[in-house]
Structures
1.
Amino acid sequence: MSPANITFEHIEKPTESLAEEATQVFAGLMVEDPAAIALVGGDMSLLPSLGACMIRALALTPGVGDVFTARNENGELVGYAIFSLPGQLILSTPEQQKHGLFDFMGKLSPEGQKYYPEVMAKEVPKANDEAFGIQEAERNTYWCNFAMAAKAGATMALTTTNIRNVPIYEKLGFKLYGHKVMPSPWVDWPLWFFAKETQAKAE
């Protein structure tokens, strides 16, 4: 049951200002996350740029994702979920990439510029596919999309980089498919793989 002072909303047309709000929340929550440290090449000043390029790609590119927000009684953004739709893959098209990817990449150190595409475009997708036994798992599932999958009937899949989320997803009925440590020059970071089968609602 959600707190009485929190309002949840599905945002049909996300705005630039919402993307900026979500980026600030991301930067605040991920500041000590090992995955974030690795993906910014150890330069935590780049955390907002990392968040912005991913959030904006999914939220501001039509037909790519769904955005749900949680706001308190003062209208402040206190949480959100952004889901990539089946058939879509984050930062995989020029339309998505123009929302800050090249700006972020340009700020990384040479070592970071080599590491980020290698791990995010190759190593992480490979780990996901192996854990779930699904080819192109991120593209062929409702990636971290609980609401949509509950309606349509599909495999819901997601990963987390924080161990505190593991029991939460298990309580929500997700099955843990495995755990993998991703090495980096700055800090090794963990991935836990979860999926859940759902059934379509009867018409």
2.
Amino acid sequence: MFSWRRDTPKDDSEQLDSKISELRTAIGPLSGRSAKYCTDACLSRYLEARNWNVDKAKKMLEDTLKWRSTYKPEEIRWHEVAHEGETGKVSRASFHDRQGRTVLIMRPGMQNTTSAENNIRHLVYLLENALMNLSEGQEQMSWLIDFTGLSLNTNISVRTARDIIYILQSHYPERLAIAFLYNPPRIFEAFYKAVRYFLDPRTAQKVKFVYPKNKDSVELMKSYFDIENLPSEFGGKATLKYDHEEFSRLMAQDDVKTAKFWGIDDKPYHLANGHSAAEAAPEQAAIA
């Protein structure tokens, strides 16, 4: 989901270009958002996810294009999912990892709703937002997962987890660099044993359990993150404070960038301060 394999043509630029060209020919002419989505970097990720088998990559990509045409993740706007984010259960961090990757912070113990569909839609929105805010030259994101407050009442179902994993692995291939699960309780360890069955082996290798008393796991996480930026919930020195109003303002600004990137004629909606999202938005950032 979301490492180059040993038989990858990564170091052979001519072979890589040839595979991308072959895949592009196989999928045929594209238009509109599908054409914009299928960059060379995108095709490379799908080829990588299918071990450079063009036929399998073609099937995977076509399934994604079909999903995007119906689910329309690029059309989801923050005001549609903001109620899911009131507690900050998933948010984009204000810092990056040491490689400059966008970081998503997940706090399952802050679960505040029961709708599986809305939870997934909220997560998809933030995945799209994270990708829209990647640093130049970056194609992957990092995840930090804090389990403070997790209980039977806040834990998502195995079925919902399965559906989330399916979307991530099928439609966001090679987008996850690393996921650190910090000090998970035993209740989650049992849950993970159930959902790991649905994980691709390479994805499972990117999931790292970190325990404060396990020096090796802590050092691994520190190799990815500056301790000064890392929130105290993850053993760092920074303070993790989620301000829903401020985060909503940021997402509204990003929604304008997203609409502009995809060529969507959005009607501006109003923020809590009375300004429209279009008025608050900065210039569009470069998208990797």
3.
Amino acid sequence: MALANVLLLSQIAGHVLLFILSLCIVLPLCINLNQFCGHCLLFTTGKWREEDGMFDVHWASNGFCTFPLITGIFLLIVSLIQIYRYARMKDEESFIALFVDVVLGIWMLAMSILSAIFITLGFIVWCDGMTERFPSCETSAGQNIIRGDTEKINTSGFYIEMGTTQFGAWGAFAISVGIGVIALLKLIHNHQVRNIKVSMYLERQRLVNQQHFDGRSTPPIVSGNSSDSDPNK
């Protein structure tokens, strides 16, 4: 029981951290998409023009930003549901519920690692283009660098926004690993307890049947008078 309580508290704490980290993914990414007028910064490339020193940008697919955004929203919803569910839990979880927790943990783990890779590699590609002109990617923030910028793209906060999003994605991956391991441990523990209960029940039934069989197999006691009277007949 003590182990189960420790694991339950660990799951609640893990989902609280996952809720905070999912906000670190969703909010900065939404702000960046708004400031870039719906364009995705990740994996965006371009060339610097010698004539005016502007960046001739080739925008990447919005899917590179959409997937981390969907991942953050998914983690946000799952963490809220699990926090509410674990906080109200009184009885022991069923095997099906524990199995669902393991499956959710695997999904969160896979989506968070993919999102973290997309954000990290995509931001590196963007910064490689920025460092061709500026000494660092951070110093390019806030500069009017986009050629033909009729949409008034705001580049002032992209470095902090993408850095926060990257931190949230890798943090969510680490927490998802812990949550998945705890869910798997609870599933294994539940399976072991069920096997022990089944074994104890079968052993008890075997002993009961053995005692019943021993009671019926005891031979009857034959009286001496009846045995002496047989030869006379």
4.
Amino acid sequence: MFPRPLAPPYALLFLTLEPLSTLTGAIATWVDPVGYFGALVPGNFPEGEGLGEAARMRVRMAVGQLGNCYFLLALLSSLGLRAVRTHVRDPAAQEVVVRALLLALAIADITHIVLTLLPLPSSFALSPQTWNAHMWGNVGATAMLFLGRCAWFAGLGRGAVEREKGRKRR
């Protein structure tokens, strides 16, 4: 078993794959915000060409802010979890901090999926075969990260860190 809260499979998922995928999303929103906006929902939806200049500015701002949220997730996953592994020596304390961070990210996973699917017609939202890469990234990749977090919470593939006997939890 592994003495640290992030065993190798979880370290790969949360310290490498998640930051890379969210950083990729951030860059995509910054490079082409109007194109990103138009590609969020596949089908016969206008991809920005019918937008007036004021709407284009709003789209650039809103999608740029979305990109900043993706960037923040990349930083939290990468830098936050690495800092815990590097600077918190007590494995039980690491466990508490990692658990709190992964719980916050798991809640955000669920809200992200719900807020992505909720505005869509159910005939589209429940037909993944019609989704484009953006939909799969927003729903499919997020669901996989959520399942990875659930596996971590369930203790799959990692050693549990024993709490000191008699230690009070605050």
